[in-house]
Amino acid sequence: MASIVASALAIDQIVKFVMVEFVMQPPRIIEVTSFFDLVLVFNSGISFGMFSGQIGLYPVVFALVKTAIATALIVWGCMTNSRRERLALAVMAGGAAGNIVDRFRDGAVTDYLSLHAGAWAWPSFNLADVFVVTGAIALVACSMVKPRPKADI
């Protein structure tokens, strides 16, 4: 479990470093497709920038709350007997850890992915967010699959 959490964290931080230091210098919008852009946004709020005015005033407190949540995911993962559930929780915790590092270091999360279609636009996000959402979807899927009964030998 620890290696998956560490890998997700490392991948996220490396990609963010490359985006900030190389790809987005100077900061601009890079159109990749008609519905996908690379942008550079520093999100001081919760998901999708909500409450940025309030949370932006206390980034360390919010980072500590997120650290407690990530720790709970890791503890849960260590306690489960399901490898699939453990993997989903580890991916979620690694993604959360990536955003936690940003909050402690910068006071905001570094986002760089942007999806849009016509006038509709999804709020910017990053690879850590993808890890969290993917892990959450996998966790829900795990809860829907019944474990196979052990064969009597």
TrEMBL record:
Entry keyword annotation includes Cell membrane: yes
Segments crossing the lipid bilayer: 29-51, 57-75, 87-105, 125-145
Enzyme Commission number(s) of this protein: 3.4.23.36
Catalytic EC class: hydrolase
GO cellular component annotations of the record: plasma membrane
Pfam families documented for this protein: Peptidase_A8 (PF01252)
Compartment list: Cell membrane
Membrane topology: Multi-pass membrane protein
GO biological process: proteolysis
Domain of life: Bacteria
Active-site feature positions: D111, D129
Reaction equations catalysed: Release of signal peptides from bacterial membrane prolipoproteins. Hydrolyzes -Xaa-Yaa-Zaa-|-(S,diacylglyceryl)Cys-, in which Xaa is hydrophobic (preferably Leu), and Yaa (Ala or Ser) and Zaa (Gly or Ala) have small, neutral side chains
Pathway of action: Protein modification; lipoprotein biosynthesis (signal peptide cleavage)
Molecular function (Gene Ontology), one example: aspartic-type endopeptidase activity
Keywords linked to the UniProt accession: Aspartyl protease, Cell membrane, Hydrolase, Membrane, Protease, Transmembrane, Transmembrane helix
InterPro entries for this protein: Peptidase_A8
NCBIfam families hit by this protein: lspA
HAMAP family noted in UniProt: LspA
Role description: This protein specifically catalyzes the removal of signal peptides from prolipoproteins.
Similarity field: Belongs to the peptidase A8 family.
Stated name of the protein: Lipoprotein signal peptidase
Lineage: Bacteria, Pseudomonadati, Pseudomonadota, Alphaproteobacteria, Hyphomicrobiales
